[in-house]
Specification:
Distance between the termini: 40 Å
Low-confidence stretches: none
Strand order of the largest sheet: 3-4-5-6-7-8-9-10
Shape: globular
Helix content: 25-40%
């Protein structure tokens, strides 16, 4: 039995608040890494077409013996610049991802990037609405959408995204996006929640809070996400880290801790800028 609490998405679907991400995990390692995560109690697994590990992820899910209705599986459409995206091409890529994962349906399907300069995310979203209506994706959402992209989507289509998955960590707290999400009932999901190992976990304020609670800096940062109400998807291929990252439900940060972490916001992106990214 997983100890991870769930949130309820805006269409009534339950989603675990903490999941396991497989970004940069090679396909031949995904089977083992996802297997470790499932054994540790994770039930939400986040992959993407561009990660190249949907097959290994699917094999681990299917080998786990865990009932499908206890799992929450997310993948993402890689709406690359090499494709002129139409309804049919979106449906084709969705079918391909399902086949690689060995599943009959997804719990969550995301548009990976807005790529607004190509002006096709509305076309893509309308195909997503069709997928959701068919029942082959329980929920649909977006990833890396800025407020202006979301506002256009909300104004010109009929289904409000259930999730926006964005880069989010103490040095990039995304207050404007989180506020917009809250107004429209969109769940905020953070990728690179631990700052990609680029110094966040050595920040003195984080280290001091970890020492105060007898926890690791990573556990402190994940706990911060959870207490803000974010969904979070840390990744690791190391069994001890996989276990450490889910062991974040036995303590709470106090107001002083939360204030200290709030002060770390620098607007510092580690990944691409969604306003300009087009690969």
């Amino acid at each position: 039995m997983s100890k991870v609490p769930s949130i309820t998405l805006n269409n009534g679907t339950a989603m675990p608040q903490l999941g396991f991400g497989v970004w940069q995990v090679p396909d031949d390692e995904a089977f083992t890494a996802v297997g470790h995560a499932l054994a540790a109690g994770y039930r939400s697994i986040d992959t993407a077409a561009i990660y190249g590990n949907e097959e290994g992820t699917g094999k681990a899910l299917n080998a786990s013996g865990i009932a499908r209705d206890e799992l929450f599986v997310t993948t993402k459409l890689w709406n690359s610049a090499s494709e002129a995206w139409t309804r049919d091409s979106v449906l084709r890529e969705f079918d391909l991802s399902l086949s690689k994962l060995g599943l009959d349906y997804l719990d969550l399907y995301l548009i990976h990037w807005p790529r607004a300069m190509r002006d096709d995310y509305l076309t893509i979203w309308r195909a997503f609405e069709e997928i959701a209506k068919s029942g082959r994706a329980k929920a649909i959402g977006v990833s890396n959408f800025l407020p202006k992209h979301l506002e256009r989507l909300l104004g010109e289509t009929s289904v409000v995204p259930a999730v926006n998955q964005i880069e989010l960590h103490p040095q990039l707290q995304q207050a404007d996006s989180r506020a917009l999400h809250a107004r429209h009932g969109i769940a905020t999901e953070g990728w690179s929640p631990l700052g990609q190992g680029k110094g966040l976990l050595e920040v003195p304020a984080i280290v001091a809070i970890a020492q105060k609670h007898g926890r690791t800096p990573a556990q402190v940062v994940l706990r911060w996400h959870l207490q803000l109400g974010n969904v979070v998807i840390p990744k690791s291929v190391t069994p001890s880290r996989i276990q450490e990252n889910i062991d974040v439900f036995g303590f709470e940060l106090d107001d002083a801790d939360l204030s200290a972490i709030a002060a770390l916001d620098e607007g510092k992106r580690l990944g691409p800028d969604p306003a300009t990214f087009d690969v």
